[in-house]
């Protein structure tokens, strides 16, 4: 059976959960290989509703380091989810924690990661855009209640528009 797309109100504890998970990931991945650990996704945007799931990008020096890290996360109980968004980015899920964790291993300089950071930072700096994103998500979670891929696809144009604005603002 398909998993339900569930959104909950913003939880002030999410940043603390991220910090604890980041410490664990750095230890698991022997900090020397880790370039950065970034809180991404809606739980990283103060004040907006999100899936009760902490999304994290772990940036490693290169694709070879990403491949080595895959087995480390699997051994630590993370479920491999493949490379759904980018062939260089590998996703893992940990459902046994509260909140759940979704970790992406990315090589340094990866565009998927860069887009996520641009999106996150733009929403943090533009509360009206963040509020519009929240309204869209709340509408779509009803329309795609048991279709996570459809839910994500339906948000794509909004996300791309924000990333484009963020890139323009950088120049």
Structural notes for this entry:
The chain has helices at residues 14-28, 63-75, 111-125, 127-143, 148-170; strands at 34-40, 53-60, 79-82, 90-94, 100-107. The protein is α+β, with helices and mostly antiparallel strands and 171 residues long. It has one domain (14-170): Beta Polymerase, domain 2. A five-stranded mixed sheet has the order 1-2-5-4-3, with helices on both faces. Strand 3 and strand 4 form a beta hairpin. It is globular, with a radius of gyration of 16 Å. 31% of the residues are buried. The mean pLDDT is 95.
Search tags:
alpha+beta; Beta Polymerase, domain 2; 5 helices
State the oligomer: single chain
Kindly report the average pLDDT value: 95
Q: Indicate the low-confidence ranges by residue numbers.
A: none
Distance from N terminus to C terminus (CA atoms, Å) equals 46 Å
Note the overall shape.
Answer: globular
Q: What's the total helix number? A: 5
Question: What is the strand and helix layout of this fold?
Answer:
Blueprint lengths: L13 H15 L5 E7 L12 E8 L2 H13 L3 E4 L7 E5 L5 E8 L3 H15 L1 H17 L4 H23 L1
Parallel strand pairs: 2-5
Antiparallel strand pairs: 1-2, 3-4, 4-5
Give the structure's gist in a few sentences.
The protein has 171 residues and is α+β, with helices and mostly antiparallel strands. It has helices at 14-28, 63-75, 111-125, 127-143, 148-170, and strands at 34-40, 53-60, 79-82, 90-94, 100-107.
């Amino acid at each position: 059976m398909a998993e339900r797309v569930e959104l909950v109100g913003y939880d002030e504890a999410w940043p603390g959960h991220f910090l604890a998970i980041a410490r664990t990931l750095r230890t698991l991945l022997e900090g020397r290989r880790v370039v950065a650990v970034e809180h991404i996704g809606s739980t990283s945007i103060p004040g907006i509703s999100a899936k009760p799931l902490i999304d994290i990008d772990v940036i490693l020096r290169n694709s070879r380091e990403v491949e080595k890290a895959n087995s480390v996360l699997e051994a630590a109980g993370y479920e491999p989810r493949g490379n759904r968004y980018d062939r260089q980015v590998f996703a893992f899920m940990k459902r046994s924690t509260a909140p759940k964790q979704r970790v992406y291993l990315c090589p340094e300089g990866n565009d998927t990661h860069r887009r996520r950071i641009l999106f996150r930072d733009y929403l943090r700096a533009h509360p009206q855009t963040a509020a519009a994103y929240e309204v869209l998500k709340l509408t779509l979670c009803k329309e795609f209640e048991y279709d996570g891929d459809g839910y994500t696809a339906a948000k794509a144009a909004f996300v791309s528009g924000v990333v484009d604005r963020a890139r323009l603002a950088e120049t």
